[in-house]
User: What shape does this take?
Amino acid sequence: MNAESSEFIPSNELEKHLVQAQKGELEMDQLIHQLFTNQVVILLDEAPETDVWDDSLAPLILGNPAGDRALAVFSSPDRAIPVSQQTQTFEHALLVDFASILNGVPSDAGLVINPAWSVGFEIPAQGVVELREVVGEFGSD
Assistant: This one.
């Protein structure tokens, strides 16, 4: 399955909001709020022993042609599977609260939501720093 050529059919509320945002029907701050109130999937190099991500497990970090790095985050397990199959190193998926991943993102990395899919977006490293500062505001909902 090639994620780029597959039709994006939302499979959960977060994905419905991603589609709305991409169409301009939802403001970015509303989308960020939705991220904080949902779980996301990250891919890891080893199977986690618990349902909590710790820094002993390496997450999938992608780079772009400009040299920017970003932690790959997926809106559902279905979005992670094709990418996991392509990497063959990051075969272990972990469903986590979005807020809980922010402290694990390397300081020089951003986030990329749904890499290889037509519906997603990027948050640069500085944006991750700003999200860490407001995590209490959204994380307590």
